[in-house]
Structures are given as C-alpha cells and as structure tokens.
Design brief:
The protein is an alpha/beta fold. It has 26 helices and 17 strands.
Length: 752
C-alpha cells in the first residue's frame, strides 16, 4: 500500500511538471507573436512617416530593419536587467514617437529598441527616484525629449505642468528683467549653500577679474542662490553677479546638487531667449589673488571664448575634457570610465557629501559598463573609444538656431533623466548619454594620440554637434582660456582688437608679473633645471607665465661637420613621445608648470618654423640671388662669413637656424602681447632664454634687480661660474620703463 501511494504522489509531481512546461511553452509562443505584431505595426508606422530627410520609403525601412540581428542582441542584454515600471507624466502614441525619432536621425540601436515598444525598464536606484518628474513639455509644439536615456526615453522636458509652476514663474521673471539686455550672452551658475553665498558677498569676491568682465559684458552674469542668511542682496559684493534667489522648498529634490542639475543641464528652459549660454560652476570663480587673473585661467572675454570653442568648430555645445589628475582618475595612468568611477567612489567613501548615495553610484557605473559591453555596437565604440569623459564645471551652449536648440534640449533632457534615476554625479552619466545620442567621433579626429587632442562628434548628416576640448587645457593647469585659444593666434589678434581692455596696474598684489620666453629645438631643450632652479624659486616673488616654442625636426648646426652636434640628446626627464606631433609632450609641459603654481602662456611644438613664406625673407633672397647668383641666398643674412665655400655653407646653416629662432620668438611675443591686450595688463619683466639654458643654482630675481639697470645680458667673457656672473647669465628685459619696453619690442621682433 505504501509503495502504491508513493507511486501516485510521484505521478502527480510529473504531471505538474509537464503542465508547467506546457504553460511556459504557451507563454513563449504568445510573446513571440506579440513581438512579431509590434514589428509589423511599427513597420507600417515608419512607412507612413513623413520623408523629412529625403529618404525613400524603401531606405527608411532598410534604415530600421537592416540591423535586426543587432536588435535581438540588445533585447538579450536588456533581459539581464531588473525591469521596473518608471513614471512618466505623458505617454504618446507609438506612431508619433517613431515619426519623431526617424525625423531626428536617432541612432539605430536606440530606434530598434524603441520600435518594438520595449522601452528599457531599468531599475532606478536614486534615493529620490520616487520624486515626480516635474519637467513636463507636453504643451510645447516640439518638446525636448529624453530619447538618449537608458532610464526612460519617453520623458519630456518643459515647464508645462503644475509641478513646474515655480520654475515657470522664475523663467518669466528672468525674461521680464533681462531678456532684452542679455540676449547676446548669458553666463550663469548656482551657489546653493551658505558657504558660497557668504563668499560671494565678501569684499574680495573676484577682484580685478570681475571688473574686466563687467566692463566687457555688463552684468549678464547670474548666480542662483538660496539666500540662507536672508540678506536680500540681488548683486554679489563686486557687482558682477546678479543673484537670483530660489526657494529650495519649491524645488523637486531634497538634495540641492540634484536641484542644481535642473538649472544647469538644460539652459533653454530658463533662458529660452538667449543666443549664447555658458554654464560656469561657482567654485571656478573663487580667487584669493586680488586683481591678479583667476588662478583657474578663466576667460575675461566670454564672447571671445565662445568663438574659440563653439564658433571655431561649428558645434552646438563645448565641454572640457577630463584631465589625468588624481582627483579625476586617482592613481590610474589613463583617463578611463572605470578609473573615474573608482576615483569618485573612493572620494565618496571618505567624504559622504560627494554623492547622495554611494551604492547608487556603484550600481550606475556597473550598469553603464554592462550596457556598453557589446563592442559591435556604435554606441559602445563611442563609449569606450578613449572614453569621452568631461569636467562639467564649464559648458558652452550655442542656442542661435533651431537645430542646436533641439539637440541641446534633447541631450540635456536625457542627461537629467539619467540623474533622476541614478546618482547625482553628472560626469558619470555624460559618456553614456553621448554614446546613446547617435553621435560619433569625426573621422578627421581618429588619429594617434587622440586622447590628448580636441574631439568633435558629428551626427549622421556629418554635421559637427559637440566639442570636447583637449584635457591639457583644463583649469587644473591654470591656463584654461589661453590654452583653448593657443592654436588660433592670428585670428584671435583680429578679434582682440575690437575688444581690447585698457591696461591696469597691480594694486592689491605686490608680486610683479614675469613672462619667460624660450625658443629653440626639442632636441636641445633643457626643462628640468628651469623648473627647479628658475620657475620654482621665482614663483615665490613673482607671478610667472611660461612661453615656449620648439622645433622637433633635426636641423643642420653651424658646425654640423664637427661630429658632436649630431649626438645631442634631449633632456632625459622629458618623456618619450608616442605621437608624431609631440602633443603628449605639450601636455607634460603644461602639467609641470602648473604644479609649481605658474601658468603656461603658450606651448608651440612644430616640425619646423617656416621661413620660406616670410615676405621680407623672400624679397631678401631675391636680391641676394641677383647680386650673388652662385651662392646660397641665405649665406649673407643675417650674418656674413664667405672666407671659403665650406665656411659660407656653414654660415648659411647658421642663418637658417637664426631666422627660425627669431621667428619663433616673434610668434611667442605676439602671443604674450595679445594676452596683455585681452587681460588689460603689462608684464613687468620679460626673460628671453636659450633652449639649452642650464640652471645650476636657484635664481633670485631680487638680486638681479638690486643692481639697477633696464636690460641684463650674459657676461660673455665670463668663463668661471661664480656668484658675480651667475646672476647675469640671462637676457632679462625690464618693461616697466618705457625705454626698456621699446628695446624689448626691438629684440622680440629682431627678424623684422
């Protein structure tokens, strides 16, 4: 009997298992039929979509379905995630969504994923994930959408609903007061906290930097504040920043960093009337240097900076590349997404204020790495190709045409959607939004050493849309605005003429300003001794700007037949370059100068200085050929030694090198004087140095100046190194006296 009962129980279990398997099979068949029907419906919708991009119906269908295999790979990846329902204030018909996305050239993976109605239901981990999405754009004719977001592609961004009533009131009040006055340019930031607000109301808020800014642009600089001290002030202490008081209790999030992102990442919501908008973190403004330039190297001419970034590359927005700094990537030797995540997480473990939820940060990093693990997808290639990481403390937006307004709006809306769902660290979500946007790196930018260079991302129509400035220009290196402009000196000179600032005198700082100008060849360049024994000690007494121009090709020396000149070795402390144009050496020089609290005025590394296109030299050579047709036309200028043919050829080599040297000096001097005009100051002292100057002892500029005089040159008859001559083995032109300044101009323009 017991055996029979056991058999019956066993049979019942088998029957249940079989029933379960049949049910699972039935559900699988139903799911496949549902997907097939959705594909059929979407196919019909796409065929009916308006032909806005001049694509035939056949091409539109091919555009969507040619990567069907990729689509199902994506579905498999998405099933790995824990889908959950996410809130959305507005749900539009599938047909409207598809038409909108086809017309906007949404990336194929995004389009395919959304075509089957399977919006990824990623599990949100934000501690404020249950806060309602207040940025309703349904009342707008063409609202901004979160179409690049993995959290939800159906969110809209606008100020339509009741939840956005406060922001709408804020926008209307700003427009009423400033739309007409500040239409050309708006620069804004947010200081939501007592620390920044007290600082902005202090007497030494910005010093001379703000004076120049206001003189050029008026007071179209805004800071959103909470007025925690209830002062009621509407201007910063120096009058440069208009303070817009917001009520934190009427903002959606408890965390003010999240509230700041609403103000920051979609400027068209608050300043829809502005042509150009620049976001500038309040922390970048802080300076204790009186009327000296901002230690971050911020521009004082923001329109000029706009032209040097967005204007130069014809893009809709410009960001600063993340530098290889400990604060950004920890001890990693490369700038990568993982290294940045690890650095932020490590910082958050020490300081809880870094993020409002450490575990959310970890899960977000893991989520993005898994989502972009398929190397065959373009989005993954963009995400991992030299890692498009940025520092979002300074963002430049072009809002002058509808294409840029739409792109910036959709990009910002998608970015905000990611922050709503995940961590409050916008730099973590930026590379994912960029990778999902359908943009790709311009083919012209895909060269060796790409990580050291500017990057331009283009859309499917090959239009440049987004710029990331080379990381060596980061404000950590104290030369932000000058570095961005360095490759466009002659164009800048024309723009500066229209907006020159009158010179100011140093009033709140006793430190003189010194320009160090070095020209020559990379092979002869001695850098380490100048760092240790010139710049480091001089920085204690002066504000130092370093200008250097180096040729990388080997040139024939004056005594090239003597043997030793062909065996010169570069400074062993300089790293070996891995790229043809030595852009990695440029970054090294910038980081080392900045490490000594000094600034780089310019770093020019080029294969050779072009002397054959100089008009004055062309005329000189033509005359020489007429007078001495059998000689090298360069053998008699600027020096002459024609005792015999060998010496004459040696002199020609020397002349070519001299001309290259002085053309390089002239170019650096023009850069330095342009910077003086732009910032409204005059250098107190200018040092012209050889490329192979070797500093054996620490240089004290006070000892030299105590001897009196305007111009100091080497004591050429001194053959022994002693204290008497050590301080005189440089060229130092004093520019305080008018006569000395004129002589400095003569030397810098010697070639002319």
């Amino acid at each position: 009997m017991k055996i029979r009962k056991m058999k019956k129980r066993k049979m019942k279990k088998i029957e249940l298992i079989l029933l379960g398997m049949l049910l699972l099979l039935f559900l699988t068949i139903i799911l496949n039929i549902s997907i097939a029907l959705d594909l059929k419906i979407v196919s019909a919708n796409i065929i009916k979509a308006p032909d806005k991009d001049n694509m035939s119906m056949k091409n539109q269908r091919q555009h969507v379905f040619s990567s069907r295999e990729t689509h199902f790979d994506l579905l498999q990846q998405q099933r790995l995630y824990d889908y959950s329902s996410s809130s959305s204030n507005h749900t539009e018909s599938k047909e409207h969504d598809m038409k909108s996305m086809v017309s906007r050239n949404v990336s194929k993976p995004t389009l395919l994923r959304q075509a089957v109605g399977l919006e990824p239901r990623i599990q949100c981990h934000s501690p404020e994930k249950n806060v309602p999405w207040i940025l309703d754009g349904t009342c707008m004719k063409d609202p901004h959408r979160s179409i690049f977001s993995s959290a939800s592609y159906k969110r809209t961004c606008g100020l339509c609903g009741n939840g956005a009533e406060y922001l709408r009131e804020l926008q209307e009040d700003i427009a009423k007061k400033f739309a007409k006055k500040c239409k050309e340019l708006v620069v804004y930031g947010a200081a939501l906290g007592s620390k920044y607000e007290q600082w902005m109301r202090s007497s030494n808020f910005l010093g001379d930097h703000s004076i120049k800014v206001v003189r050029r642009h008026g007071t179209c600089f805004f800071q959103f504040v909470t007025d925690v001290d209830h002062t009621g002030d509407l201007l910063s202490s120096d009058g440069s920043q208009r303070l817009i008081v917001i009520d934190p209790s009427r903002m959606p999030y408890k965390n003010n960093r999240r509230n700041t992102k609403i103000l920051k990442l979609n400027p068209g919501l608050l300043f829809p009337w502005a042509d150009r908008v620049i976001w500038q973190d309040a922390k970048l403004l802080q300076s204790n240097h009186g009327n000296m330039p901002s230690p971050k190297g911020l521009p004082s001419d923001y329109l000029l900076h706009f032209d040097r970034t967005v204007g130069r590359y014809g893009v809709c927005s410009s960001y600063m590349g993340l530098p290889p700094d400990k604060a950004s990537v920890g001890d990693s030797s490369t700038v990568s997404f993982k290294a940045h995540c690890d650095a932020i997480i490590a910082s958050a473990e020490k300081r809880p204020t870094v993020s409002d939820d450490l575990e959310t940060l970890r899960l977000q990093c893991q989520h993005y790495e898994e989502m972009h693990s398929n190397e065959a997808l373009q989005s993954s290639q963009v995400f991992y190709n030299r890692h498009p990481l940025v520092d979002t403390a300074f963002i430049v937006y072009d809002m002058r045409d509808s294409t840029c307004r739409k792109f910036n709006g959709d990009f910002g809306c998608s970015w905000l959607s990611e922050i709503h769902c995940f961590s409050d660290r916008d730099q973590i979500s930026f590379p994912h939004v960029l990778a999902s946007s359908g943009l790709r790196l311009s083919p012209h930018m895909q060269v060796t050493g790409q990580e050291y260079r500017d990057r331009i991302y283009i859309n499917e129509k090959q239009r440049p849309m987004l710029h990331i400035a080379k990381r060596g220009c980061h404000w950590y290196y104290r030369s932000f605005s000058r570095c961005v402009a360095s490759s466009n000196t002659h164009i800048d000179e024309e723009m500066i003429k229209d907006n020159e600032t009158p010179p100011t005198t140093t009033t709140t700082s006793t430190k003189p300003r010194v320009a160090v100008i070095v020209a020559g060849t990379l092979n002869r360049f001695i850098f380490d001794s100048a760092l240790k024994n010139l710049i480091k000690p001089m920085k204690k007494r002066a504000s130092v700007d370093y200008y250097v121009s180096l040729s990388t090709a080997r040139m024939k020396a004056y005594r090239s037949d003597s043997g030793y000149t062909d065996r010169l070795q570069p400074d062993p402390t300089l790293p070996s370059s891995s790229v043809e144009d030595f852009v990695d050496i440029e970054e090294y020089i910038r980081t080392k100068i900045a490490s000594l609290a000094s600034s780089v005025g310019a770093v020019y590394l080029q294969k050779s200085i072009d002397i054959d296109s100089e008009p004055m030299l062309i005329a000189r050579r033509e005359r020489a050929l007429q007078e001495h047709p059998d000689e090298d036309p360069v053998s008699r200028f600027p020096i002459i030694d024609s005792r015999n043919a060998a010496i004459s050829q040696r002199t020609a080599n020397a002349n070519r090198n001299l001309l290259r040297l002085h053309l390089a000096i002239q170019s650096l001097w023009e850069t330095a004087t342009n910077w003086e005009k732009e910032e409204g100051f005059k250098y107190d002292y200018v040092m012209f140095l050889r490329d192979d100057s070797l500093w054996l002892k620490e240089f004290d500029i006070r000892n030299l100046l105590s001897k009196g005089g305007d111009i100091f040159i080497p004591a050429c008859d001194a053959r022994e190194l002693d204290d008497r001559y050590h301080e005189n083995t440089i060229k130092l032109h004093l520019s305080r006296q008018h006569s000395a300044r004129l002589q400095c101009e003569v030397y810098a323009n010697f070639e002319r």
